[in-house]
Specification:
The structure holds two protein chains of two kinds. Chain A has helices spanning 57-73, 80-96, 98-109, 113-134, 162-175, 190-201, 216-223, 237-247, 272-284, 304-315, 336-351, 383-386, 402-410, 425-434, 467-472; strands spanning 21-22, 24-26, 29-31, 38-41, 48-52, 148-149, 152-156, 179-183, 209-211, 230-234, 253-257, 263-266, 296-300, 355-357, 373-376, 393-399, 417-421, 439-442, 461-462, 475-476. Chain A is of the alpha/beta class. Chain A has a seven-stranded mixed sheet, with helices on both faces. In chain A, strand 15 (373-376), helix 12 and strand 16 form a beta-alpha-beta unit. The radius of gyration of chain A is 22 Å and the shape is globular. By secondary structure, chain B is α/β, with parallel strands linked by helices. Chain B is built from 13 helices and eight strands. An eight-stranded parallel sheet of chain B has the order 7-6-5-4-3-2-1-8. In chain B, helix 5 (80-91) links the parallel strand 1 (69-72) and strand 2 (105-109). The longest helix of chain B is centred in the last third of the chain and has 18 residues, at 247-264. Chain B is globular and about 60 Å long. Classes of the chains: A alpha/beta, B alpha/beta. At the A-B interface, helix 9 of A face helix 3, helix 4 and helix 12 of B.
Chain lengths: 479, 335
């Protein structure tokens, strides 16, 4: 054994108090569903965690009715200050149960415990704290005096950051005075159900938050429900399109946060060691299951070979394995389905002539795993340079001039995020000005803050989440 | 500890710079090194600090830390008795447990070298890597404010008295005002003063005093400069200036050492000194070394801790690991 084969340091699951079976959380209580229940598994071991209820159209109807009742009878009549108190309470409960939530998230999603512990859960609490502060200050949100809530919000979230996406959706909706029905992703319902327990602990009025678990059908029934005033969706562009189509003309307010194929641009004067870290964090954070992941690396020609060589050395030190081990850097792929897609696109990349490389790493036999992979010799027309892979796969392209970098970065149907690495402030500003992307990071990547709006251009969706702008998605201005 | 150099430092510098090392060639070279983004560097260091080192890894790490320590006393009030006591501790760190490894070296002021050598006796290194080294601070430590003549005499005295390693300080005033050539020449001259009558040479650790360099860019430039001039080790601090060693600074220096190895195949040592007091902190440094330059650097020829109080904390942790419970400060010896 060598020192770098650090001895196992597993986070204990002893503090988890999971039920063998979970119902739907409607009107403040767990209740059985009409559909056939399903099992949620740990993607790292394929072992079952719990049985999860499958909501059918009738259940969705019940949930929306509960949300409507809560909106009419209690939530819309509460003062902003009182709504804020509930949100502060939720935020503190998230902090109190942080370790438990982190373990549950890593178990159900496959992400490394160091990420759920140091990124996901602290951001969840931050989001609730941030929007709790807004609840009694809506007059100053830039929408004119006395903006009003929309009513019942239908919210459908993805599996990559299960609890964080829940917070992004629920915190601003409640602060603005709406009630919600939220559907977590089929493969990652666990932390949403623990959140339901927190809602009970916080004594939130019944029906203000409802959580219905299920698959695509459940989500479809929810967003198409006639008594829903607002639809908020985060997920794939294909589903986003379907939602845009089905809600058109219904009068529902819609925000969509969809895919991305972000360019991470490294200029020859970049702080090189930090850029390497930023590239790694950009694409291998959360196994690359990040809509804003820096999946296209654009490196200036003169430093291309040096960057690739350094990147390879760095990747050799990434630790892939048990998500609950505190030293794991890259965890499990969330589902067999997603793994198949990553494999397919990687094989296509190879077939199209790009050069594939992965560090030597042994992957566990059980579970869904994919070694960190980089492709060099990628051209802009390759599918791996155009399609969202949503996995730990980086495509490396080069450029010669800043103008070429901008042209290549913008040459994508998406426009969610981008990164710029340079020691020269004026260059960063000039390039950022020309990039068509919702979020642009300079000399960093994948940093999030509740005060900063997030959202995309083009096929990455519309509407903004986070910050003052995130409130506008849940409010009707007086004008 | 011998790191053979195929070519002399001066020749190596010419090879890397592509020209004679002068003020202007050095300035051009050092200013061309990619910058350091402080936020990113500190984030990376913090991330390395979250590694969880448990059970067998921890046991290995604690023993290795002891073997990497330059047990240090650098007080104006030092006496031969104090130095003898320090040496006794270096040879047998934990009298209750003879399996405890010995430290790498004792580090003292130049005038204390004869006492350290005498006290070490048979435990003193034979030159083949076994045994404990004697390191002496020199060149008007800690400020470096003396003429070159005095600095060289200081160095030669310590070497003549039996020092195996010289910890010199750079002229921060010259460095900060951009006179890189002056700093370079001084290191080359001190390196020359490390030569013994028989042609062998004491090893040279170059103290950058990073607490006075104020930016990570300067730390990086000074690291390159010290290596170009022939330093065998680059060392963070004297321990007399705050802040002394920090993890981000050490990480930045390790990155230079890694790049130098990639460029020339030579292995340069790194010594964080001052401010590392707990086993927990020291383990973070081991992780940072292993994940930045590689595990092969975790040996006394290439990595040292300059510390005095660290040893006792490691001994307490070591006792805890073996006995299962914590003892207390009175169960380890004060030096």
């Amino acid at each position: 054994m060598t020192f770098l084969d650090y001895a196992p340091a597993p986070e204990s699951t002893a503090l988890l108090n999971l039920q063998p079976e979970y119902g739907l959380f409607i009107a403040g209580e767990f209740s059985p569903a009409g559909g056939e229940s399903f099992t949620t598994i740990s993607p790292a071991t394929e072992k079952p965690i719990a049985r999860i209820a499958h909501a059918d159209a009738g259940d969705v109807d019940r949930a929306v009715a509960a949300a409507r009742k809560a909106y009419d009878k209690t939530w819309s009549r509460l003062s902003g200050r009182d709504r804020g108190k509930y949100l502060f309470r939720i935020a503190r409960l998230v902090q109190e149960r942080a370790r438990e939530l982190a373990v549950a998230e890593s178990l159900d999603n496959g992400k490394p415990i160091k990420e759920s512990r140091d990124v996901d859960i602290p951001l969840v609490a931050a989001w609730f704290f941030y929007y709790a502060g807004w609840a009694d200050k809506l007059d100053h949100a830039g929408l004119g005096a006395n903006p009003r809530a929309l009513g019942v919000a239908a919210q459908v979230i993805p599996w990559n950051f299960p609890l964080l996406m829940l917070a992004w959706k629920i915190a601003p909706a409640l602060a603005a005075g709406n009630t919600v029905v939220l559907k977590p992703a089929e493969t990652t319902p666990l932390t949403a159900l623990l959140f339901a327990e927190i809602v009970q602990q916080a004594d939130l009025p019944a029906g203000v938050v409802n959580i219905v678990t299920g698959a695509g059908e459940t989500g479809r029934a929810l967003v198409n429900h006639p008594d829903v005033n607002k639809v908020a969706f985060t997920g794939s562009t294909a589903v986003g399109r379907e939602i845009a189509r089905s809600t058109a003309g219904s009068g529902k307010k819609v925000t969509l946060e969809l895919g991305g194929k972000a360019a991470n641009i490294v200029f020859d004067d970049a702080p090189i060691d930090q850029a390497i870290e930023g590239i790694v964090n950009g694409i291998f954070f959360n196994q690359g299951h990040v809509c804003c992941a820096g999946s296209r690396l654009l490196v200036q020609e003169s430093i291309h070979d040096d960057v690739v060589a350094r990147l390879k050395v760095r990747l050799e030190t990434l630790r892939v394995g048990d998500p609950l081990d505190k030293n794991t850097d890259v965890g499990a792929i969330n589902s067999a389905e997603q793994l198949a897609r990553i494999r397919e696109l990687s094989d296509i990349g190879e077939a199209e002539g790009a050069e594939r490389w992965s560090p030597a790493c042994s992957l566990p036999d059980q579970g869904f795993w994919f070694a960190p992979t980089i492709f060099t010799n990628v051209s802009t027309s390759h599918r791996i340079a155009r399609e969202e892979i949503f996995g730990p796969v980086l495509s490396v392209l080069s450029f010669r001039t800043p103008a070429e970098a901008v042209a290549k970065a913008n040459n994508t149907p998406y426009g969610l995020s981008a990164g710029i690495w340079s020691d020269k402030g004026s260059r960063i500003l000039a390039v950022a000005d020309k990039l068509r992307a919702g979020v642009i990071w300079a000399n960093t990547f994948n940093r999030f803050d509740p005060a900063s709006p997030f959202g995309g251009y083009k096929e990455s969706g519309y509407g903004r989440e986070g910050g003052r702008h995130g409130l506008a998605a849940y409010l009707r201005g007086a004008k | 500890m011998t790191i053979d150099r195929v070519v002399s430092p001066a020749h190596r510098a010419i090879e890397v710079l592509g020209d004679e090392p002068t003020e202007s060639t050095l300035k051009r070279y050092l200013d061309g090194i990619p910058g350091v983004d402080g936020v990113g560097l500190e984030q990376r260091a913090a991330a390395l600090g979250t590694r969880s080192i448990k059970t067998t890894s921890k046991a290995w790490a604690l023993d290795r830390i002891i073997g990497l320590i330059d047990l240090t006393t650098l007080e104006g009030a030092d006496t031969p008795g104090k130095v003898r006591s320090l040496v006794a501790k270096a040879i047998l760190p934990d009298p209750a447990d003879p399996t405890t490894p010995q430290v790498a070296a004792v580090c003292v002021y130049g005038d204390m070298v004869p006492f350290a050598v005498e006290a070490l006796g048979a435990a003193h290194t034979t030159g083949s890597g076994e045994g404990i080294q004697v390191a002496a601070v020199a060149t008007a430590f800690p400020s470096g404010r003396a003429s070159l003549r005095v600095k060289l005499a200081d160095t030669a005295d310590a070497v003549a008295a039996g020092a195996d390693e010289i910890d010199m300080v750079i002229d921060r005033g010259a460095f900060l005002s951009g006179r890189y050539g002056e700093v370079f020449d001084e290191i080359v001259a001190v390196k020359e003063a490390c030569r013994r009558a028989d042609g062998s040479s004491a090893h040279l650790k170059v103290i950058l005093e990073t607490g006075e360099l104020s930016t990570y860019d300067n730390v990086r430039r000074a690291s390159w400069l010290a290596i170009l001039a022939g330093g065998d080790f680059i060392k963070t601090s004297t321990g007399k200036v705050a802040p002394a060693a920090t993890l981000p600074v050490t990480l930045s220096m390790l990155e230079v050492v890694r790049d130098w190895h990639r460029l020339t195949g030579e292995r340069i040592g790194v010594k964080p000194a001052g401010g590392i007091r707990s086993s927990k902190d020291a383990i973070k440094y081991l992780v940072t070394v292993a994940e930045t330059v590689g595990e092969e650097w975790l040996r006394p020829e290439l990595f040292r801790f300059g510390a005095s109080s660290l040893l006792n904390d490691v001994l307490l942790q070591r006792q805890k690991l073996h006995s299962g419970h914590y003892s207390g400060a009175d169960y380890v010896t004060i030096d």
